[in-house]
Design brief:
Elements (H helix, E strand, L loop, with lengths): L2 E6 L5 H10 L7 E7 L3 E7 L2 H4 L2 H6 L4 E7 L14 E3 L5 E9 L2 H12 L9 H13 L8 H14 L2 E9 L3 E6 L8 E5 L6 E5 L2 H6 L3 E5 L4 E6 L4 E5 L10 H6 L5 E2 L2 E2 H19 L5 E4 L5 H11 L2 E2 L3 E3 L12 H11 E3 L8 E6 L6 H12 L4 E6 L27 H8 L3 E4 L2 H9 L11 H4 L9 H22 L1
Parallel strand pairs: 16-17, 16-20, 20-21, 21-22
Antiparallel strand pairs: 1-4, 1-10, 2-3, 2-4, 5-6, 6-7, 7-8, 8-12, 9-10, 9-11, 12-13, 14-15, 18-19
């Protein structure tokens, strides 16, 4: 999960990029970067939050009407500065690029690019493989001015080489802005128009809310397998290069996206209300006595309100969030996640004392955060603590862009709901069903027939993820974790 923005504007775009990145900061808090272009490239990247990386000096230095921004959540690569996006190559033309997703065959591509094309990848960030393949496919065409056909041929070449998920935005110096989405459309990507001059300004982003804040309208999704090319005269060219069943990631609606965003024409807020409504039936079937419903802020709030309304129960926001602490799920280390829960959430003890409490959260992944919250609620004197997740049990590694790539990371891997309850210290755990999760999304967009649900059901929809590949990824992940532990020591 990352956030990307690309802008081809009539005005200097640093302020727009900065505002747009703040709107999608929730998609990645590890690092951020901006590259602008005004005849030459201007770069600023760093670790941390957007507000901490960019200064007034950068606003003056990062000039140009064209630029790309990125907020990063690492799935490949650690927290090193050189792993921050966007990335840049100077030949052919000069190309900058950022992406959201995960390249499954990154290690093989890194080897191929060096041995066949003598291109050295100097980071552990998988976008560098997409960028260099794209650049090589452009270079192979040996043309001075790129036509839409040239660009689409290069994107087609990327589709043939890359395994995984990727929503990409790129700019080719003097040629135009390019955006494309993998053939299954796993990760979201939208573009919009602002009619503020003789020719319009254009922007591409991971979420519609970013375009809303930057005052872009006429927003539409980039389709799965589609490429968008806005040439140097700002003519818009699109082509659906490869058609596969549209299979968006279900976790976007569960956790990643902001409630005011639309992901593939599904409002996230409405979807989470639907999830609460559908989970109500599972809670009702349990026969539990519940005094109060309490959400784990922030993503679970909408579903929890609907659950309380449907069950005619008291709703209380009794876990107070410190908004200056990052999202615990996307923190890279387990100890960091656990310790941050106490800093991030503080209970209002009187709302829990002597009560049967239903806590509502979006999901249970590793169980560390859930256990810490349940422990806090018990310390406040709750009689019983029940835990409802409005997504199904997470049991399988994600290779498409969520930082859960090893089987041992899932508390529900070989456990049913009762066993998970014992592990996290709850009196009862209630999960959403996978069918109801899909139903909640389809209630807002019935045209969505298929989804990426690999983390729930173990079915990898691209069809090219083998058991050997999963084992290799798990080994690489464990080796990286061991290396980072050594560095910390």
């Amino acid at each position: 999960m990352c956030g990307v923005i690309g802008i081809y504007s009539n005005n200097d775009i640093f302020a727009e990029l900065y505002q747009g990145l703040l709107a999608i900061q929730h998609r990645g808090q590890d690092s951020a970067g901006i590259i602008t272009y005004d005849g030459r490239f201007h770069t600023k990247k760093g670790n941390g939050l957007v507000r901490d990386i960019f200064t007034p000096d950068h606003a003056r230095r990062l000039t140009g009407h064209i630029g790309i921004g990125h907020t990063r959540y690492p799935t490949i690569g650690g927290g090193r500065g050189e792993d921050a996006q966007p990335f840049l190559v100077y030949s052919p033309f000069g190309i900058m690029m950022a992406h959201n997703g995960n390249v499954v065959n990154y290690a093989d591509l890194k080897k191929l690019l060096f041995e066949k094309y003598h291109r050295l990848l100097n980071s552990d960030n998988d976008v560098e493989s997409i960028l260099n393949i794209f650049a090589q496919k452009i270079a192979d065409q040996k043309t001075g001015v790129l036509s839409p056909a040239n660009v689409f041929a290069a994107v087609s070449g990327v589709f043939k080489e890359i395994i995984g998920s990727y929503s990409v935005v790129s700019y080719i110096a003097g040629q135009g802005l390019v955006a494309f989405r993998d053939p299954y459309g796993i990760k979201p990507l939208v573009y919009g128009v602002r009619r503020d001059g003789i020719v319009p300004s254009y922007a591409v982003a991971s979420e519609s809310v970013s375009l809303n804040i930057m005052n872009y309208g006429e927003i539409r999704n980039i389709a799965p397998g589609e490429a968008l090319f806005i040439d140097r005269d700002r003519n818009v060219h699109t082509k659906r290069i490869r058609k596969r069943p549209h299979s968006p990631c279900l976790f976007e609606w569960v956790y990643f996206a902001r409630p005011d965003s639309f992901i593939d024409e599904v409002n996230v807020y409405r979807c989470r209300i639907n999830l609460g409504m559908l989970l109500t039936e599972e809670i009702r079937k349990s026969g539990l006595h519940i005094d109060v419903v309490v959400p784990v802020p922030d993503s679970a709030r909408d579903a929890a309100i609907e659950i309380a309304r449907k069950l005619n129960l008291k709703y209380r926001e009794a876990l107070v969030k410190n908004r200056y602490i990052g999202r615990t799920f996307i923190m890279p280390e387990a100890d960091e996640r656990r310790s941050s829960v106490r800093m991030k959430l503080n209970p209002i003890a009187s709302e829990f004392k002597d009560k049967d409490v239903l806590l509502v959260d979006d999901s249970i992944v590793r169980g560390n955060t859930s256990r810490a919250i349940i422990d806090m609620v018990r310390e406040c004197g709750a009689k019983h603590v029940y835990f409802a997740a409005y997504s199904p049990p997470l049991r399988y590694p994600c290779v498409y862009g969520i930082d859960m790539q090893t089987r041992t990371e899932f508390v529900a891997r070989h456990s049913d709901a009762d066993q998970v309850a014992r592990k996290i210290g709850a009196d009862k755990v209630i999960y959403q069903t996978l069918d109801n999760l899909k139903k909640a999304v389809r209630m807002e967009n019935p045209r969505l027939k298929q989804f990426c649900a690999a983390c729930f059901d173990g079915c990898y929809i691209t069809g090219d993820v083998t058991p050997e590949m999963l084992q290799k990824i798990e080994r690489e992940r464990k080796d990286l974790q061991a290396h980072q532990l050594e560095l910390n020591i």
